[in-house]
Amino acid sequence: MSTVDSTELEAFRQDVAAWMRDNKPADPGFLLPQSFMEVGSEQQLDFLREWQHKVWSAGYLGMAWPKEFGGGGVAAAFQSVADQEMARAGVPICFNVIGLGWAGPLILHRGTEEEKARYLKGILTAEDIWCQGFSEPDHGSDLGNAQTRAVRDGDDFVVNGSKIWTTMGNFARYMILLARTNPDTPRKYDGLSFFLSPMDVPGIETRPIRKITGEYGFTETFFTDARIPADCLMGEEGEGWKIAMQTLQYERGAEAGAAGGLAFVRTTIDDMINELDGLTRDGEPVLQDAQVRDELVQLIMAEKAISLGDRRNRINALNTDYPFSLALSRKLRWTEHTRHMRQFAIGLQGAAGSLYVGDNQARQGGFWQRAYFNSFSATIGGGTSQVQANIIAEHVLGLPK
Length: 401
Prior knowledge:
- This protein is an alpha+beta fold.
- It folds into three domains: 6-128, Acyl-CoA dehydrogenase/oxidase, N-terminal domain (Butyryl-Coa Dehydrogenase, subunit A, domain 1); 131-251, Butyryl-CoA Dehydrogenase, subunit A, domain 2, CATH 2.40.110.10; 269-396, Butyryl-CoA Dehydrogenase, subunit A, domain 3, CATH 1.20.140.
- The chain is 42% helix and 14% strand.
- It is built from eleven helices and ten strands.
- The protein has helices at residues 6-23, 42-57, 76-89, 97-110, 113-125, 240-251, 269-276, 290-313, 325-347, 367-380, 385-396; strands spanning 130-133, 149-153, 156-163, 174-180, 192-198, 204-209, 218-229, 233-234, 280-281, 284-285.
- The strands form three sheets. It has a four-stranded mixed beta sheet. A four-stranded antiparallel beta sheet has the order 2-3-7-6, with no helix packed on it. A two-stranded antiparallel sheet has the order 9-10.
- A hairpin with a 2-residue loop joins strand 2 (149-153) and strand 3 (156-163).
């Protein structure tokens, strides 16, 4: 931020805020996803695709990506401002998150010029939806033990196996795919390769998974003798683990490069306080209860700590004690805090907390109940909270495995 004139940034902020006010879509009359992990219908998809394209066309998405690949070619500070104003305006999400936040930065930093020209602009415009083929049904968080096979056959790789929790797999045009090309290496990690795989080839089938919210968004993906072109291989055979780890750095927010946009409907402490205003317990305002106020202060402190940690993380001199600790722990801290806050919000509703979307008596249409159930997705995706804790313990604190 220090390399950009503050006056210029403030003028830009005013422009973005005005555009968001003038262009925020009206209520479409159907339930919109709270995150990119709940896009479950063509109706939602079409609405969000149109919105993302509109944001990109206005110049507020991919601002730090090179112009020749559809970006804006300006400092990342401008994208940060645009994202802040999107959150403040409460506009819909930019749903193509796996492309915008993970595949795109990976291609930008590691891809060939041909790969950049082929894939990047379509990610920004929402023409090309991306999904992720990492997790498998039998291996959970043991990503290094992935067993989906990719066998070279002339100009193709023949893929057999399955992936699970494939967000928007049924809508995606491309998948970032981790598959085993050599099952006989001494170290299991050395037998993995990374592909930018098309999804529209024969032998690839997706089946939607119904979530606890009643919504869809995840799929299972099955590969049965699916032939993907050999030029979809990223890097060299056997480099898949290294490339996957870099991808997870983007997913966990530990490495910069994302195109921007909102991935989630944000809920803050202020939102929660507004929700609690007017609630009573034993005839008294619930916000006057000493125990409630104490827990609320704890949540306020946690939210502020995460915010200050994000600012501190951008200043190298303040990160010499445990380098990368804030970046590596951010995903764990933010997802668990969000889950806790949403649980707290519905718990204070008393019996009304058991009501859900569709019940006329539910507060805010059951928003907080739905948000709470949806928060579990973020505590699992990109590595579970338990996996994140192990990463911090081993790679930051130096504790033994």
